[in-house]
Design brief:
This protein is α/β, with parallel strands linked by helices and 391 residues long. It has 15 helices and 12 strands.
């Protein structure tokens, strides 16, 4: 059988970190080992009933059996605008400042395709979500890491970026609440971000995937809440985390009109929007009572308190987790992030994500997901204790 050579764009793609993780987990499970999966960010709760029912009823409508509008149904864009006004007091023009996406991951890759050329620079959080890298690599551009360090509360230090790097940079990726560190950003940080982006003509892409998941009574701030944000960038919000709709693959980008226009243009060539019944269900999620979102946040906060408290009792060093559904655990002793993750898997059947997979500054940590029941997390703590005791 012939073997065909992939395009340069495909050959430039980095190894897919999460696919590699899943393969390692599956290989271990196939050997019959008892493994607790704490390494992925896949919500474990079902989509709320009222959203599922909305999809079921809408699926019977003949209108949705035809091709949907290329840019999505207007009612969903209007629902997004209503949602942002209600939750963040942000005014959006549904027609020009909202783009419907088949999942946030798609939009994050497309934005690099929209605005980067070979030799351009994208400022990248390190550690950060690895799929940001894909579009940058595909376009032959360069990533310049912005280290997220504990001493800076896992926020980029803009003063450490050289003038030469600023001059070459076209995009900046941010993500708060943060995956993988669990850090959150405040208004002052976003004000500084807007000042720097405006000064250096850099487009900001804020990934707000965990926007609904903030702890200790503090609601995460939207980038667009800060004056000037729409002048310099966009925010991407996914239905996956807030409404347990990860498998539905639906999200949206909001903000700068020129970015939204370009994003919709490239999508015209990739997609014919999303199944209309799914769009109606998404609108239902955004416009109906948000009690399900509040309940979900409380569930994650309770799990965080259980896991972080238990790890501290066992003398593990855990970073404060103020948002998202991840815990950022410092590896003990002389371990690397990968050797610690491998030992946990082999010795006590705990599967976690090594920090090095999120960038070089993720070395020394592992990421633990809160996407398991409290009973499972209690089992995990027992295994962490066994590991510490050398069992």
């Amino acid at each position: 059988m012939k073997s065909y050579t992939p395009s340069n764009a495909v050959q430039q793609l980095p190894e897919q970190f999460f696919a590699k993780l899943v393969n390692k987990l599956r290989t271990h499970q196939d050997k019959g080992h008892d493994v607790l999966n704490l390494g992925q960010g896949n919500p474990d709760q079902p989509t709320p009933d009222h959203i599922v029912k909305s999809l079921q009823e809408a699926a019977e409508k003949p209108l949705y059996h035809k091709y949907p509008p290329f840019h999505g149904f207007e009612f969903l864009k209007e629902a997004v605008a209503t949602f942002y006004k209600r939750e963040y007091d942000v005014d959006l023009d549904p027609e020009t400042e909202v783009a419907i996406l088949p999942g946030s991951k798609t939009g994050l890759v497309e934005l690099s395709q929209c605005f980067l050329n070979p030799g351009d620079v994208a400022l990248m959080p390190d550690p950060g979500y690895p799929d940001y890298w894909s579009g940058v690599a595909m376009m032959g551009a360069t990533m310049e890491p912005m280290p997220l360090k504990r001493e800076h509360d896992f926020l980029p230090d803009y003063d450490s970026i050289s003038q030469k790097t600023w001059e070459k940079s076209k995009l900046m990726f941010l993500n708060y609440p943060n995956n993988p560190t669990g850090a959150v950003a405040d208004r002052a940080f976003f004000e500084k971000t807007i000042q720097e982006a405006d000064r250096h003509d850099v487009c900001v892409i804020h990934d707000f995937a965990y926007g609904a998941i903030g702890f200790d009574g503090v609601k995460p701030i939207s980038f667009l809440q800060v004056p000037g944000a729409k002048d310099v960038g966009v925010e991407i919000y996914t239905m996956s985390k807030s409404y347990n709709m990860a498998g539905w693959r639906i999200a949206f980008a909001v903000g700068n009109r020129s970015v939204i226009e370009t994003l919709e243009k490239i999508q015209d060539h990739y997609f014919c929007s999303i199944f209309g019944a799914e769009q109606e269900a998404a609108a239902t999620a955004l416009l109906a009572s948000q009690e399900c979102v509040d309940d979900l946040r409380q569930t994650y906060e309770s799990r965080r308190d259980l896991l972080v408290g238990g790890l501290k009792d066992l003398q593990y060093e855990v970073q404060p987790c103020h948002g998202s559904f991840f815990v950022w655990l410092k590896v003990p002793g002389s371990y690397t992030s990968e050797s610690f993750a491998d030992d946990l898997l082999e010795k006590v059947g705990l599967f976690v994500a090594p920090g090095i997979g999120f960038g070089s500054h993720g070395e020394g940590y592992v990421r633990i997901g809160l996407n398991n029941s409290e009973e499972t997390l209690k089992d995990a703590l027992r295994r962490f204790e066994d590991f510490k005791n050398g069992s």
